[in-house]
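Q: what sequence does this backbone want?
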């Protein structure tokens, strides 16, 4: 098992007040093969949850076990090992780019882990290729490339640390539709080619419906749903999750109701079109 939370609670405190960001969280995530979407209203605990997953935060109560290491850490030297196994890409990660070239920026993580320069460079180039960054881009300044390219550089920097689990917090926010599609295809290709567990936080239900196999819905610091997307969108309690249905499913239901088109659960527009083409053959 990659990540286990057992009755985890997290409490934010400052000088004036405190509040519970997470309460009574039980969660298990496999080290391989999962594609998990996390959604919920702003302030529901999504970002806190993933920061606990790679040891950036330590639980106020309960047990967090990451690749057989219990947090809080008894040995602080374990922090880097955990963050190497569970890579976290923050919202707008391009704001964290700072090196002279794209290549040096991608190499930063492995170099910080005391990996020798040649191996760090090899890892950086392999990660760059995985996210679709060509050789010509490697010697450019990370501040003179497009927003989508900057996002891919940031993801490559985390991939270069060879994490077993990759977490992305709102990876498509701020990108145009073409940039969103390109980036999600890259992320999904990594998931499929390496059998890597991917965890994506997103407010975009269409994105999660298309790519995620499992969806976790957060509400008021608790997990209100954890399971397959099919069960989520058919759940009788769906209206209590403060979510929209995927666009493809809305259209399918409309066509079924208004034109008696045979109904099928479809979770992306391509699947909807394919179903309509198939149905039209029999009309």
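A:
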């Amino acid at each position: 098992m990659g990540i286990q939370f057992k009755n985890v609670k997290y409490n934010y405190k400052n000088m004036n007040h405190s509040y519970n960001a997470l309460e009574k969280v039980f969660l298990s995530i496999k080290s391989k093969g999962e594609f998990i979407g996390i959604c919920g209203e702003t302030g529901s605990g999504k970002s806190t949850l993933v920061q606990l997953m790679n040891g950036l935060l330590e639980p106020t109560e309960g047990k967090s076990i990451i690749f057989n290491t219990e947090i809080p850490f008894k040995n602080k030297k374990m922090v880097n090992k955990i963050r190497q196994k569970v890579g976290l890409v923050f919202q707008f990660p391009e704001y964290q780019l700072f090196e002279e070239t794209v290549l040096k920026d991608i190499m930063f993580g492995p170099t910080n882990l005391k990996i020798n320069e040649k191996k760090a460079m090899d890892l950086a180039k392999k990660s760059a290729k995985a996210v679709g960054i060509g050789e010509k881009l490697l010697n450019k300044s990370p501040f003179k490339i497009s927003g989508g390219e900057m996002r891919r550089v940031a993801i490559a920097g985390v991939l270069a640390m060879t994490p077993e689990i990759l977490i992305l917090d709102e990876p498509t926010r701020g990108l145009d539709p073409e940039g969103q599609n390109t980036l999600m295809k890259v992320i999904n290709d990594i998931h499929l080619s390496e059998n890597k567990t991917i965890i994506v936080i997103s407010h975009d239900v269409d994105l999660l419906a298309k790519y995620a196999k499992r969806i976790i819905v957060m509400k008021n610091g608790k997990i209100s749903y954890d399971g397959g997307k099919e069960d989520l969108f058919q759940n009788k309690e769906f209206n209590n999750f403060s979510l929209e249905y995927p666009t493809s499913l809305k259209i399918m239901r409309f066509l079924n109701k208004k034109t008696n088109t045979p109904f099928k659960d479809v979770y992306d527009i391509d699947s909807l079109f394919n179903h309509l083409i198939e149905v039209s053959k029999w009309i």
